[in-house]
Amino acid sequence: MIRIVLAILMITGVAAKADTMRLAATTSFNNSGLSDALLPAFKVDTGINVQLLVVGTGQAIRLGQAGDVDAILVHSKAAEEAFVSADFGTHRREIMYNDFVLIGPSADPSRIKDAESAIEVLQLIAATEMTFVSRGDDSGTHKKELMLWSAAKLYPDFFGAWYKAVGAGMGASLNSASGLDAYIMADRASWLNFGNKGGLELLYSGDPMLFNQYAYIPVNSDKHVHVKSEAAQRLEQWLLSARAKNIINNYKINGEALFIFNGAP
Amino acid sequence: MSQPISVYLNSILVKRRGKTVLGPIDLDLKVDGFTILLGPNGSGKTTFLRILHGVERASSGVMQWSMPNEQAHQAQAYVFQSPIMLRRSVRQNLAYPLQLIGMDKDEISSRVSEWAQKIGLQDALEFPAPRLSGGEKQKLALGRALIRMPDVLFLDEPCANLDGRSTREIEDLLHDATQVGTRIIMTTHDLGQARRLADSVLFLLNGTLHEKGPASIFFAMPRTIEAKAFLNGDIIE
Amino acid sequence: MNEIWAGIQEAVRLIFSLDADLIGITLRSLEVSLTALVIASALALPFGTWLAIRRFKYRRFAIAVLNALMGLPPVVVGLVVYLMLSRSGPFGVLGLLFTPFAMIIAQVIIITPLIASITHQAMRELWSEYHDLLISLNTSKRQRVAALIWDGRRTLMTAALAGFGRAIGEVGAIMIVGGNIDHVTRVLTTAIALETGKGDFALALGLGFVLIALTLMVNFAIHALSRTEREGTW
Fold first, then answer.
1. Considering its fold, how many domains does chain B have in total?
2. C87: chain A residues, CB-CB within 8 Å
3. Is residue B55 in some structural domain?
4. Is B77 within 8 Å of chain C by CB?
5. Nearest C-alpha of chain B: how many angstroms from C70?
6. Is residue B147 part of a domain?
7. What is the pLDDT of residue A70?
């Protein structure tokens, strides 16, 4: 009987594989297609298999706290710093950045195309009460969006029905925006790789406030003994290497670079 | 098979929904030959039979066979008024009671052929039992009951829904069974059948045992008025 | 309509090119759901039968509970299993989270009540039919269960199929406990969710048609194996 159980366990891959680690990364890392470019190269170079869990920043942090993953890759500086200072992560390592962009229907009823700043964009949308889709899922993108509303002195809690918090990943949220012909804030990479743009267009970008930094944090093995610290460390070093830099900077869609490497080894 | 069998019932009572359906029955019955349970509808014949075989349990009272009840039950068989067919072939129905006692496969096979022959279904062995005709089903039920050579065979109005030809075939099989020593206890409301087959009679009325005795005496000189009336074909209440 | 047509084309392309990813995902879907089916059936079939023939005081209550469990929302099951298997949870030390085994566990929990309930109803009917005969023949409890299960096998197979259908089409629970990890815990349903989320509807539909075809094939395979259709109408 026990042999049958063991056989099932082996087939279902429970037996801990050496040279495997788990990384929780934001949906934009995967939706942009960058993970499919980077992780196989990492495996070729080091032989380490990275199992990627694609979740929102909030869930990634929960997974890190619970010790269910060995490292996280997210883009919300405040949350990351809190994570590290609470000793769940060892340290925060910046890897690459891109920017957030404002997407909306090509007709642009709120006229945000000619806005002078991100804050003005949001003020225009709120004033015209045009449908706006929010991630609503505690992700890095969501946190950035909330920060911008706050800077614009607007409070989403009091918005009317035009503000739709879908509680979903970047792709699913874009789907909703496409279906509703609504405005939405997305990271450039996810937008460029999105397959269902419908009547939506990139309307505004460029404000420094829309800067989007991605950082890598290994989970602290002091808190969770089983965490694969060595593999996590090697991934970190590799992400800072020239090879990774090369892949990241050259990852383009329609000639446009999606991320810019800014890791300091 | 040859040692005497008897059953002792003491204050057997069967109540359903507060109403007494059978009893009280006090009886020391020697089970021998062909016993017919006679009586009008609703007199408790079926209940009495089911109690004897253990398919139903009495509400109160004691029943004891002349050997441990468990042992007695294993050497008994029952044919229901509406034959219960397993959803399998004729062959598998016949084989089932033998498989239950772990009989050897070859032995089972030969017994099944033998009995299929006796009940006239040897050409229908692979036929699905639920699709047999009424008469065929009852013969199969009988064959299945006799295939283990029980000491006692109970039958509950086995020919009630059958035509004359099937009835005759069943009666012939029952006669053959008594010839090899099987004791039979059977209910019927067909007086002609009772006269043909009975060695002894138990006459039930309103849930109690009203009269009993050897068949020859009962049919010729019934003691009670009700028995007389019943044999006359009258309705008794 | 355009997209559905694109989906069909994509499905055909994937299948005929024997796309390696598709094969991997499909095999994994089958592995997870069939294993869950086997385990769930091993639990539910005897239990449902036993419940049908056993008389005990709280029988009606047990049946009510069983029927209520059928209505367990799969995603809630997923959440609870996740909390159990998480490293911070009671069974975390087993390291089962984000593996196919966790997905199997979740699916077993989801489909066992369904299979047990259908089994119970079918066995109840058959038991009332066979009751007197099986008692008369002096059968043991085990022999009774065996007779009921064997003679009721067509209905039981339907129960199992219903369970399989539930399992292979499930996405909420296995997304949570499996994590939809590429090449590890990604199956047809979670892949469809992912591709839909990326806006790649053609691929998602393609996978969807593969899933439908798969379910149909398994149905036919089971029927062919049991030769139930050829055995007659009873």
1. 1
2. 66-68, 224, 226
3. yes
4. yes
5. 29
6. no
7. 95
Question: Does C111 score more than 60 pLDDT?
Answer: yes
Encoded tokens for B170: 């069943």
**Spatial distance between the Cα atoms of B6 and B102, rounded to a whole number of angstroms:** 28
Which of C86, C179, C199 lies nearest to residue A66, judging by beta carbons?
Answer: C86
Residue A40's pLDDT band, with cuts at 50, 70 and 90, is very high
C181 touching A (Cβ < 8 Å): yes
Q: How large is the ipTM? A: 0.90
Domains annotated on chain A, with CATH: 2-97+213-261 (3.40.190.10), 98-210 (3.40.190.10)
**Do the domain assignments include residue B17?**
yes
Parallel, antiparallel, or unpaired: how do β-strands B19-31 and A200-204 relate?
unpaired
| For residue A228, pLDDT beyond 60 | yes
**E strand or H helix at A46, and its extent?**
helix A34-46
Domain ranges of chain C: 2-225
Distance CA B236, CA B38 (A): 13
CB B21 within 8 A of CB B47: yes
Cβ of A127: how many Cβ atoms within 10 Å? 10
Contact C138 B128 (CB under 8 A): no
Mutate to test the interface with C, among A51, A88, A187, A221 (most CBs of C within 10 A): A51
What is the mean pLDDT of the segment spanning A72-78?
92
Q: Is residue B27 part of a domain?
A: yes
Is the CB of B87 less than 8 angstroms away from the CB of C234?
yes
Task: Output Rg (C-alpha) for chain C, integer angstroms.
Answer: 20
Domain C2-225, CATH number (from 1.10.3720.10, 3.30.450.20, 1.10.10.60, 1.10.10.10): 1.10.3720.10
Question: C74, C69, C95: which is closest to C84 by C-alpha?
Answer: C95
Q: Is the pTM of this model over 0.90?
A: no
Nearest CA in chain B to C147: B86
Residue span of the structural domain in which B43 resides: 5-80+183-232
Touching check for C182 and chain A: CB below 8 Å?
A: yes
| Distance (Å) from the alpha carbon of A195 to chain C's nearest alpha carbon | 5
Contact A66 C182 (CB under 8 A): no
Kindly report the CATH number assigned to the domain that includes residue B14.
3.40.50.300
